[in-house]
């Protein structure tokens, strides 16, 4: 049985905060800042033990690291060996700029974690995040290095490996995504990966068949239907039902004036047909703001065939923030609550599946990630 | 020899100046890491390069080579670059 009290883990450009909720998700006690001034790209509680909390930390100047806590941040300890690429003989190899995406392994592999980094790298820990090693062929394979492109092909704050999704039925079966570099699938425990790009659009002018120019923003695997994937891409919203290999652009069903560009994509914990996105303006120079300054979530309850706008309680004008790919999540309740953090440092929550929203906090630093967790004593 | 530690790394050393030993700059950083686990990776990346925003001064001169000998050196100054405004 799940413990009753949720905690929101909020990672920001200048530190981390924990929001301790009551059983009704109505009152939240704010604890923080942790790591004031440090860039926290991700902050995740292990759902398997309810105790191990990992923070991907860096600063603008020092090398990156990972911090661990087993008492909800009362004490932090640095990982003994944070993610780092293999050293090359001539010193010309890559170096990790920061860890970006932290993913607990499956329930069948307690202690296993994965990390995606900038620049693109995949790392694994088998001891609860204390020591990390390069994982799979990805980091140094010449073909994948070519597909990763150069710094110029990555996002403005660095190319990233993200969206590490593990099939709950088979830990040998996993997906990863790279910005840029596309979506890839492994069925052999990461020994090899195969591109999964059919049906995905790229920016006009780039060749479709080169993974380098594919930019998945967020890929999610349905927990209750692991053969279904959803994706928010630089060029649209997609669904893929395996064993098919061709993505279907469900974002074409979004209102034309809103479009289907954005970063986060959140799944209903119990209903594989229900998902949420948070559209943004991807016109011309990519403002990365809410369309027309009017932020709204969009929900589909039929696998992306139709979408409903959900903006009750959110600002109705002159709100030029948006939501990053890890900064929106759902809790595990039967009728799930939704949580999002904005680029302007606000935390918003909905207790009714997005129908209405309330602001939990303002004036935090730019929010990079929000996750919900249920700590166990 | 004495080593001046920049403030962003005081969480490791809990002091602005510490003592460390080494025949080269790299060996000195290894000794620092033995005393203060984790500090070296914040200064030097996995390819053995001093990180972009870190600087090491010996006798008032910037040094970028980890094999720089430290014979007769009394103080090594590690600073964080002034980039960022």
Give structural notes:
The complex is a heterodimer of chains A (377) and B (85). By secondary structure, chain A is mostly beta strands. Chain A has one domain (7-373): YVTN repeat-like/Quinoprotein amine dehydrogenase (Methylamine Dehydrogenase, Chain H, 7 Propeller), CATH 2.130.10. In chain A, 2% of the residues lie in helices and 38% in strands. A 4-stranded antiparallel sheet of chain A has the order 3-2-1-27, with no helix packed on it. The mean pLDDT of chain A is 95. Chain B is built from 3 helices and 5 strands; from the N terminus they run βαβααβββ. A 5-stranded mixed sheet of chain B has the order 2-1-5-3-4, with no helix packed on it. The termini of chain B are far apart. Chain B has a single domain (2-80), classed as Roll (Ubiquitin-like (UB roll)), CATH 3.10.20. Chain B has helices at 10-13, 25-35, 39-43, and strands spanning 2-4, 17-19, 54-58, 61-63, 75-80. At the A-B interface, loops of A face helix 3 of B.
CATH fold call of chain B? Ubiquitin-like (UB roll)
The main β sheet of chain A shows up as: 4 strands, antiparallel
Order of helices and strands of chain A: EEEEEEEEEEEHEEEEEEEEEEEEEEEE
Q: Estimate nothing, just give the exact number of structural domains of chain B.
A: 1
Q: Order of strands side by side in the largest beta sheet of chain A?
A: 3-2-1-27
What's the shape of chain A? globular
* Helix segment tally of chain A: 1
Give me the CATH architecture of chain B, please: Roll
Assembly state of the chains shown: heterodimer
Mean pLDDT of chain B: 94
In the sheet with the most strands of chain B, the strands line up as 2-1-5-3-4
Number of helices of chain B: 3
**Average residue-wise pLDDT of chain A:** 95
- The chain-level structural class of chain A is mainly beta
| CATH class identity of chain B | Alpha Beta
Distance between the termini of chain B: 32 Å
CATH level 1 name of chain A: Mainly Beta
Q: How helix-rich are the residues of chain B, as a percent range?
A: 10-25%
């Amino acid at each position: 049985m799940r413990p009753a009290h949720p905690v929101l883990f909020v990672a920001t450009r200048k530190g981390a905060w924990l929001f301790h909720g009551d059983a009704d998700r109505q009152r939240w006690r704010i604890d923080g800042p942790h790591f004031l001034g440090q860039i926290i790209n991700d902050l995740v509680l292990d759902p398997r033990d309810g105790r191990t909390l990992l923070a991907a930390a860096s600063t603008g100047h020092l090398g990156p690291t990972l911090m661990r806590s087993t008492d909800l941040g009362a004490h932090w300890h640095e990982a003994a060996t944070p993610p780092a690429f293999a050293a090359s003989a001539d010193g010309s190899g890559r170096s990790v700029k920061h860890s970006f995406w932290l993913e607990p392994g499956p329930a069948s592999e307690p202690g296993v974690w994965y990390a995606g980094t900038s620049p693109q790298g995949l790392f694994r820990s088998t001891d609860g995040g204390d020591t990390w090693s390069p994982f799979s062929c990805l980091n140094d394979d010449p073909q994948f290095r070519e597909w990763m492109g150069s710094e110029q092909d990555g996002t403005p704050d660095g190319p990233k490996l993200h969206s590490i999704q593990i099939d709950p039925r088979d830990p040998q079966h996993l997906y990863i995504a790279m910005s840029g570099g596309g979506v890839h699938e492994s069925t052999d425990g990461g020994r090899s990966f195969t591109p999964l790009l059919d049906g995905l659009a790229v920016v006009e002018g780039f060749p479709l068949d080169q993974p380098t120019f594919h930019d998945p923003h967020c890929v999610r695997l349905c927990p209750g239907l692991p053969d279904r994937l959803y994706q928010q891409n630089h060029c649209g919203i997609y669904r893929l039902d395996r064993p098919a290999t061709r993505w279907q652009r469900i974002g074409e069903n979004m209102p034309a004036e809103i479009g289907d560009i954005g970063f986060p994509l959140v799944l209903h914990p119990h209903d594989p047909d229900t998902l949420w996105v948070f559209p943004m303006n991807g016109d011309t120079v990519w403002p990365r703001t809410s369309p027309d300054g009017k932020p709204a979530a969009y929900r589909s309850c039929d696998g992306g065939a139709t979408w409903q706008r959900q903006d009750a309680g959110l600002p109705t004008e002159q709100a030029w923030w948006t939501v990053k790919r890890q900064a929106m999540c759902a809790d595990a309740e039967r009728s799930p609550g939704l949580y999002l953090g904005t680029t302007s440092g606000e935390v918003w929550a909905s207790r009714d599946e997005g129908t209405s929203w309330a602001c939990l906090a303002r004036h935090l630093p730019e929010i990079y990630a929000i996750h919900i967790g249920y700590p166990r004593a | 020899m004495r080593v001046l530690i920049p403030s962003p790394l005081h969480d490791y050393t809990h002091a602005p100046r510490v003592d460390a030993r080494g025949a080269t700059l790299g060996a000195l950083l290894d000794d620092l890491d033995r005393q203060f686990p984790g500090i070296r990776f914040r200064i030097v990346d996995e390819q053995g390069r001093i990180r972009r925003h870190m600087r090491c001064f010996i006798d008032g001169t910037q040094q970028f080579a980890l094999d720089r000998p430290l014979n007769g050196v009394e103080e090594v100054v590690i600073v964080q670059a002034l980039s960022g405004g």
